[in-house]
């Protein structure tokens, strides 16, 4: 089992598409974002409920409605998204196995359980370092990395793809290109 779920990955990708950047738009529907990534709308809707409860996105109203970022991409960290979707779960839960050795015959000596479990201590340090690193990276940083590696045409395609779907829902008379599946990385 991963410490960070696949839902976090999908959530971050969706937020990239909402970051008002060369690879995103200001708002989009969950249905369109799900279709863009090839996942179920129901699954993504559950993720967006969590993102909204964490005040990372806000719902927009009307036929074109969907979601937009609740604050600038520079103020949303990867850690914020992890906690919003996965909760503040711990990386490691010490079970105090050190006191369960068969040679102790259900009576572990004081030395065996004194102080913090050395394995737990290492895991706590790892968790602290992981959380600190996740807090250092913002959605804006991820957008910039994507822009730096993707051809300029990618962002144009994504923006047009999402814009066309929003126009279809509004009933605009614009000619809309057929849907194509785009992966983001």
Can you describe what's shown?
- The protein has eight helices and three strands; from the N terminus they run H-E-H-H-E-E-H-H-H-H-H.
- It has helices at residues 6-17, 30-37, 41-53, 78-86, 110-113, 118-136, 139-149, 152-170; strands at residues 27-28, 57-59, 67-69.
- The chain has a domain at 6-90 and 138-170: Arc Repressor Mutant, subunit A (Orthogonal Bundle), CATH 1.10.10.
- The protein has a three-stranded antiparallel β-sheet.
- It starts with 5 loop residues before the first helix and ends in a 15-residue tail after the last helix.
- With 185 residues, the protein is mostly helical.
- It is elongated, with a radius of gyration of 22 Å.
Strand order of the largest sheet: 1-3-2
Give the overall pLDDT as a whole number: 89
Point out poorly predicted stretches: 173-185
Helix content: 40-55%
Q: Strand-residue fraction? A: under 5%
What gross morphology would you assign?
Answer: elongated
Query: What string, H for helix and E for strand, traces the elements in order?
Result: HEHHEEHHHHH
Secondary structure tally, helices: 8
CATH first level of the domain at 6-90 and 138-170: which class?
Mainly Alpha
Helices and strands: which structural class? Answer: mainly alpha
Total count of strands: 3
CATH topology of the domain at 6-90 and 138-170: Arc Repressor Mutant, subunit A
The second-level CATH architecture of the domain at 6-90 and 138-170 is: Orthogonal Bundle
| Span between termini | 22 Å
* CA gyration radius, whole angstroms: 22 Å
**CATH homologous superfamily annotation of the domain at 6-90 and 138-170:** Winged helix-like DNA-binding domain superfamily/Winged helix DNA-binding domain
Q: How many strands, what sense, and barrel or not for the largest sheet? A: 3 strands, antiparallel
């Amino acid at each position: 089992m991963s410490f960070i779920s696949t839902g976090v990955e999908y959530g971050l990708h969706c937020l990239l598409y909402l970051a008002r950047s060369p690879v995103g738009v200001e708002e989009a529907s969950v249905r369109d974002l799900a279709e863009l990534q090839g996942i179920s709308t129901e699954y993504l809707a559950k993720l967006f409920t969590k993102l909204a409860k964490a005040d990372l996105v806000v719902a927009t109203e009307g036929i074109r409605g969907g979601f937009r970022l609740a604050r600038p991409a520079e103020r949303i960290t990867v850690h914020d998204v992890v906690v919003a979707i996965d909760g503040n779960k711990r990386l490691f839960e010490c079970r105090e196995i050190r006191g369960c050795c068969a040679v102790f015959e259900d009576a572990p000596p004081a030395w065996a359980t004194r102080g913090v479990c050395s394995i737990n201590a290492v895991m706590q340090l790892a968790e602290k370092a992981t959380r600190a690193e996740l807090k250092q990276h913002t959605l804006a940083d991820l957008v910039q990395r994507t822009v730096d590696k993707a051809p300029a045409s990618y962002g144009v395609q994504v923006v047009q793809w999402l814009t066309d779907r929003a126009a279809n829902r509004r009933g605009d008379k614009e000619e809309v290109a057929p849907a194509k599946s785009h992966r983001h990385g």
